[in-house]
Amino acid sequence: MNLLLTLTLTAPLLLILSGLYRKRWSAPIAAVPALLTAALIPADHVIALDWFLLGAQLGTDELSAWMLPASALLWAGAGLHHAWRSGSPAQAAPFRLFFLLAMTGNLLLVLAQDVMTFYVGYSIMGLSAYGLVHDRPSSSAPPAASTYLRWTIAGELLLFSGLVSLAYQAGSTGFSTLAIGQADTITVLLLLAGLGIKIGLPGLHAWMPWTYAAGQAAGSAVFSGAMVNAGLIGLLRFLPLQQPGHAEVGQLLLAWGLLGAFYGVLFGLLQRTPRAILAYSSVSQMSSMAAMLGFALIEPELAPAIIAAITVYAVHHGLSKGALFLAQDDYRAGARPRLSFAILVLLSLMLAGAPYTSGAIAKTLIKTPLTDEYAWIGSVLLFASTATTLLMLRFLFAVRASRRQQTPAPLASGAGVAIVLLVCAHLAAYTMYPLPTLSLHAIWPVILALLLGFAFMRLPAATRAQNQPEPPMGDLPTLMARWLIRRRWIVWLHSTLAAEHETEPGKHHEG
Amino acid sequence: MTLSNSLPALIVASSLLPGLIIFFLREGSHRLRSVLNMFGAILKLVLVAALTWGVFQDDFFETRWQLAPGLELVLHADALSVLFVNLSTLLWLVTTVYAIGYLEHSPHRSRFFGFFSLCVSATVGLALAGNMFTFVLFYELLTLSTYPLVAHKGTPEAVRGARIYLAYTLSGGLVLMLGAIWLQALVGPLEFVEGGLLSQLPDELHGQLTWIFLLLIIGLGVKAALVPLHGWLPQAMVAPAPVSALLHAVAVVKAGAFGIVRVVYDVYGIEFASDLGLLMPLGIAAAVTIVYGSIRALSQDNLKKRLAYSTVSQVSYIALGTAIFGPLGTIGGVAHLVHQGVMKITLFFAAGNYAETLGVHQVSEMNGIGRRMPLTTLAFTVGALGMIGIPPVAGFVSKWYLGSGALEAGVAHWVLPVLIASSALNAAYFLPILQRAWFRPAASSWPQENIPARRFETHASLFLPPLVTAALALLFGLFAGAYWSPVEWAGLIAEREYLR
């Protein structure tokens, strides 16, 4: 057991150190021990390593028993797609190096059972992922990567301050003691801001569309699935969800999340790049989950049910979002276009929460704990589902428009992996919620959205404004940063302080 | 003569004697000089290992000579001195290997290595100093033995840098001496004792003690590069790379920081210093230095200058940790004494390798250097990430303890923002370097390629030392919980400072 656990965390590093990362198959192989761990190790196996860091605890608990399989599947699947699709082994070697490093960090934080180990994994993952964004020497990669890095560093510093205070107030770094300790409001807000950047809460999301649209599809798949869930794991572990006295922060998070559920859709609809649209969909979906976390802070006694629901939602969302990136890559490259488009439609329906899909289960589960007083949240989330359907419709149109007219088609690896992820998402959801209790009423938001979309298509072309310039990725924060960067005092400050005097192309996409 | 009363003296002598012999060697006797150097360095390591084991078991080590009535030369080993002695001994060995490779064909090597050994002897001497008089003596010796090293290249620029260095450090030394004499006049010969002794003095002397503290801290602050006494440090980067490495990581700057730790803990005692209200001003001076150094580092294109301003900032973490009342802050500050040492020496070794191998001195010339010199750049990356405080490199652990210590002492509302600002600034001046080195395409040719790439990217004696120190920086962070880690040892120090 412990050997398998050790191997899970060291396999990617061993592949790097031995130089085997230059082989394209190293990417999926590195995730195999993680898959085995997920399958074989029971849900409460924790080992203490006193000599590692400041005394680390590693292993599985209820949360990681859900998150580890999802993460492992995403890394393995993305790695597989990368191995099939990447060009010459030498050219793609740097990508694999950072892929394996980020994988190590991600698996470490999933298996971490204490604050410091979590932060170490989180930080390794966040920083290594820079190499996934800055992959191709294209014009869009460096500014996207810089944007990503600035936000990531900011997020990690906020999280650091939050975690230091949290651990100090709890008197220990182990997760088991955190639940009892009392955290003050500033600590909770620091944690919320730090982790909010990773899950893309509105206002903190500006890096997300840039990042998802740059680099290889395999990178975007792990970003949107495994890494975004890392932020959620952090929130589930560190927010004082089962303690009374945090209702104000809860209300803030509830409002912030519900706003984000629509904000993401609204700005996503204005985008034309398929991957950016998916990023905005993530903003919307993660915000819905954050809203429910806010509700848990308001009603601590309901927290266990909410945590369980969010866990299933996150697994469903991570797997299907990752699969969307991989299948879209196939379609764009012209690999089995009909099959991959059919899968994209299916995945879009899942995200929209169509009946009998994992999405429907996740959405039902998340609404179950709502009390009468807060029943309105359920209605809001129902509208959010309609909005999501519209956004996915927009995505499918954008995908069709983005297809490259080229043959011969490479192997449809993305679609293949996507099918596996899709099936797994359903398996996960159905273990939580047996089939017969599902009803068809989840169809209404979907039908409403389809009608709206159809009506929109019938509008005269001029009113549809297809040719208007789209807002930049990262929308309001990006625009604000661009506005700021033109202010005289900022320019002065920049020229006085900045070490990098050369202007990089697109350096100031945002601050 | 037993080991318990001779070991401290032997440790100082193990670098002093080879150094004195080296002065008289002919320039051409390369092999004999290297053998002497390495013999001294390794012998010292063995002796220090014995000393460490003894102090860990709470054994007593002390060498005493009566020079005149009331003037005793005392070398005494306690947990704090052992930490610093270990750091300087280990890094001296690595730096000696590096310096032998670095100076292979340059003139005046006997002079260089002679003063180099003197410099290390002085550092170890002041680490082991058991009273104020001994400390000041070695402190001044350090100033004098480092001057020829800074001026070593003999260029007008080097001579100018060395003069500025001498002017600053001699004045600082004078102020320190003044404070020490005043203190001795007040209370007689003063030994360093864990927990301090001054708290037993009558209340009416407290005013004078505050002024003495100010004098001592100003004297030490010059070497520790506290703002506004830091002006010499960026000028001294004209020194050869091994000297800069030693200067920034072990010898001069560290001597100042170590002195501050000594004065606060073992002369005044942390609780007494806190009662006198001396910790807050020290903490503020450290915080200002931390932020100021980082802001200045942002705009330096010269790599060594950027690293120098980074030192200004990072060394004050030690003073900050000292000023935070409580064992956690102490652990953070004292552990950073070692952590900053291994990280910064790595960065200076790497900078030396770039300059020596490719003639690269400016950050703006570093595009794509990671592909040409991957091992050196890997070491540089570890050092830089550690400086920012990114786990699992050692700097992160210092920051964690400083943050926890600030919470413990109830000063988190200003210490945490300083730590965060410093990390953000460190990221702002280190990450662009890493981005250039790894992700940008290289220019068509390097400024001055001296050592062509054959099997390795440069000479083995140049690229191995930074790899070793980078590995240490990584291990000290990864295994911070192991019994041999600097953090654990700092825990031992904190325990003895607060409980005795």
Q: What count of domains describes the coordinates of chain B?
A: 1
In which range does the helix fraction of chain A lie?
A: over 70%
Characterize the largest beta sheet of chain B: strand count, sense, and whether it forms a barrel: 2 strands, antiparallel
- How many domains in all of chain A? 3
How far the N terminus sits from the C terminus of chain B, by CA atoms, comes to 29 Å
What's the helix count of chain A? 23
* H and E string of chain A: HHHEEHHHHHHHHHHHHHHHHHHHH
Q: Can you give keywords for this protein?
A:
heterodimer; A: 511 residues; two-stranded antiparallel sheet; B: two-stranded antiparallel sheet; 20 helices; 73% helix; globular
Task: Tell me what the structure shows.
The complex is a heterodimer of chains A (511) and B (500). Chain A has 511 residues and is mostly helical. Chain A has three domains: 1-188 and 217-237, no CATH class; 239-459, no CATH class; 475-511, no CATH class. Chain A is 72% helix and 2% strand. Chain A has 23 helices and two strands. Chain A has helices at 2-17, 26-29, 32-40, 62-85, 89-111, 115-128, 130-133, 141-170, 175-178, 185-199, 207-213, 217-238, 247-269, 274-298, 303-333, 337-352, 358-367, 375-402, 413-432, 443-458, 461-464, 475-485, 488-497; strands at 45-49, 56-60. Chain A has a two-stranded antiparallel ribbon. Chain A is globular and about 65 Å long. In chain B, helix 3 packs antiparallel against helix 4, helix 5 (132-150) packs antiparallel against helix 6 and helix 14 packs antiparallel against helix 20 (486-499). With 500 residues, chain B is mainly α. The longest helix of chain B has 32 residues, at 156-187. Chain B has one domain (3-499). In chain B, a hairpin with a 2-residue loop joins strand 1 (62-68) and strand 2 (71-76). Chain B is built from 20 helices and two strands. Chain B is globular. Classes of the chains: A mainly alpha (511), B mainly alpha (500). At the A-B interface, helix 6 and helix 8 of A face helix 12, helix 17 and helix 18 of B.
